[in-house]
Amino acid sequence: MKIEKKVLDMSLAGIFTAVIIAMSVVPFLGYIPLGFMNATIIHVPVIIGALLLGPKYGAYLGLVFGITSLVRATLTPTVTSFVFSPFVTIGGYSGNMWSVVISIVPRVLIGVAAYYVYELVLKLARGKKGGQTVALGLAGIAGSMTNTILVMNGIYFFFGNSYAAASNKVVARLYDMILGVIVGFGIPEAIVAAILTTAIVKALLKVKNH
């Protein structure tokens, strides 16, 4: 039984890996261009995978997301892609090893955060009606906001001046811009993640339990 479960988990991880890669390369499927940056929903399969397979697989799927983000920033750069790739120079502004940190670390933590928030809320709900729905929604929000908050703050601390200049923003008000992205784009992304995570995980759990 353990071997069968391990094979099933690996198979599901492979499927989620393929979904993440597909979303990263198919135009407008995983990334929505917004001029100086891209909005994304690629964190959603990372969150779903973590909830179904556990935090270790969640970290692995986040790593896949991070690597695809770095590759995309390198091959199809926008004006601020240097913050995600050490191989990109745009208008005199270059990425460095902190670009790798920003691309990888927040993405690895997406699934981990989502999984433990889900488990915590389930424990607090203790079988109450609607508890699982609330847990799934909050897990989706937690995973999405982990990505947004860590990425945007990483950009601020490691690339503040160059990011502001490349984005044509006033440096003195850079963190206002960072907060604007977190609120303006991060919250809608989190709401979408909550809705999709709840609907998809519930459907998959029904199939799995039958």
Automatic annotation (TrEMBL):
It comes from Alitiscatomonas aceti. The keyword Cytoplasm does not apply. The keyword Calcium does not apply. It comes from the Bacteria. This is ECF transporter S component. The chain crosses the membrane at residues 12-30, 36-53, 60-85, 97-122, 134-158, 178-205. Keywords: Membrane, Transmembrane, Transmembrane helix.
